[in-house]
Write a structure and sequence with these properties.
By secondary structure, this protein is mostly helical. About 65% of the residues lie in helices and about 10% in strands. The N and C termini lie close together (about 10 Å).
């Protein structure tokens, strides 16, 4: 079980964040049509972005143990025994990703906060 390096993690992050930004931008603008024409309540873009982050990572990691970014870099999420993580671990990972300072734990923990709290690893597949 070979864990991935920081460079691979950065590529995963950039690819996934680009996809999330596109999805959340489209849903934000789609919702604003309803706000304009039907007087629905308006929401900040952040609600759409962070909601998409949670749903995106939960969906892909629960079903496939990888996201499109991880498919590109041939990596996947596993638990500490090297098996597919439980749904609870995926939920913990997805919720912890919503904390803005998640990435700043790498120098202290040698991994991101969402890996540490969910007891998972990102390994080469």
């Amino acid at each position: 079980m070979q864990t991935t390096g920081i460079g691979t993690r950065v590529i995963n992050f950039l690819v996934d964040t680009l996809i999330i930004a596109i999805i959340s931008g489209l849903s934000y603008h789609g919702w604003n049509i309803y706000v304009l024409f039907y007087h629905y309540p308006g929401f900040n873009f952040g609600w759409f972005f962070f909601g998409t982050v949670f749903i995106y990572y939960t969906f892909f990691e629960a079903l496939f143990s990888r996201t499109p970014g991880k498919w590109i870099t041939y990596s996947k999420v596993v638990n500490r025994q090297g098996k597919k993580p439980s749904f609870f671990q995926i939920i913990v990972r997805s919720i912890t990703r919503l904390i803005i300072i998640d990435l700043f734990f790498i120098p202290f923990l040698d991994k991101t906060l969402h890996d540490f709290t969910s007891k998972t690893e990102v390994v080469e597949s």
